[in-house]
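#data-curation
PF: Archiving a pair of folding outputs for the training set. Convention for this channel: one message per protein, sequence first, structure tokens after, nothing in between. First:
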Amino acid sequence: MRESEVTKFLVSFNGYIEYVTFPAGVFDDNLYIQYEIVWGLDWNPISGLCSGTSQMARSGSDPEKVIFNMPVEMVLGSTNVFGWPQIVVTVRAQNFFSGDTLRGYALFFLPPVSGTHELTAPLMRPRSATALGEWIAWLTGRTPELAEPRMLASGKENYLLKTESYGHVKLKMTMVSKDLRKLGYDNMAPVIKM
């Protein structure tokens, strides 16, 4: 295929959700994570899983950290960069008293620059809109949840969302692209001269 015939580029994301940390420690028996990759209208999945659920895990020698090493692999194609892929991570806990409960959401923009990247995103969880709702959440141990977590990636109605930050999620991701430069996009890391 000649360069003038190139109308689509491909990006490959390969990595893993490494761990979740809670600054005050982990107070749940078992935690698990779910992820969903969200992209714009012009993007098409070529291969890989768009969503996934991890195994149950618990903190080890570090009482503030739960290690998952959940693999994420996806190849997408597009004709423009609008709607660049993002990953929404949901952290959930399973315990004897409150059952399956939300611990928070994290949102990552997948790296637009070729290479390996370590990304960290704050873990946020929705808060009740009223004092009565806060009291019920405290009493039952169940915080409010989003009906559709992928709404975090759009940003349209997020200004009404009342949240609190609670820990963070670490992601390691490698991005490789094909034909991105042929379509006029420069995604190479900047060269720093010393």
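PF: Second:
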Amino acid sequence: MPVLCSAKCGQNAVLKRPKTGDTLCKECFYWAFELEIHSTITNGKLFKKGDVVAIAASGGKDSTVLAYVLKTLNERYNYELKLVLLSIDEGITGYRDDSLKTVLENKDEYQMPLKILSYEQLYGWSMDKIVAEVGRKNNCTFCGVFRRQALDRGATLLNVDCIATGHNADDIAETVLMNILRGDVARLQRCVNIITITEGTIPRCKPLKYTYEKEIVMYAYFKKLNYFSTECVFAPNAYRGYARTFLKDLERLKPSSIMDIIHSGETMCIKENVKLPDIGVCTKCGFVSSQDICKACMLLEGLNRGLPKLGIGKSSKANKALAALPNSRLLNF
């Protein structure tokens, strides 16, 4: 016997929401999904009228849904935003080159300007070249650090007011778990912020902060959105994968675990006597850093000197190692 939509629209339900357990028809699911993201945007005051917003676009499900929903909500609620796509080409053969084809198709479909920046262009290294040097154990460290800075560089070139990223509820819960396991108090405090604002940098926001990954997949599926679904060829050994597996096990036992972990991160207090790093700018590249020399510059210097592991680990150890080298001057960009 067909189950009726719990929104009482009279239609048959076609899905059960992982987040709430509600059984809904497609149209009611679309409305609930979009309304929750609209509430996240308005309650968090993520944008101002007239803002130019760069959507960090990878071609994956999260950024594709984000671009589609922001376009929809911008028109429905008159946000008066100018939306642009910003993509970073890490130089991963068989992964990023294919996903960027999807971004180019979305650019035309959503009628948004697109800017693509590559690691090769910014740093003189592609991820394929980096992995050839460092192997597959610490490659995600390089990619994460370079990608974050590359987005800042691209946003500066585009002169935008804000960067919107596709981080969803699962991503944020995983990051909370990772920072607890690593004892990283500073990042634990920042990772749950819906807006990240650092003096001298362009703000970043997470409109999908409270949106479950499963629901993003369902929305993209029923809307027939064009997205790239292959996992990065270098990702299987990533530390995040272990946190993700643990989180999925928790979700199977208790679906609300994802939101519970996020709320725990939001309400966690830091003792007054705990010293947090001061955020400033790198003395070499001028981008945000908690050290005199940022992690990106340290990693890049190690690569250029043939010492790829120089910047991996604690910055204090890397600084000592760098100081011991002849001509210990980092490259200016």
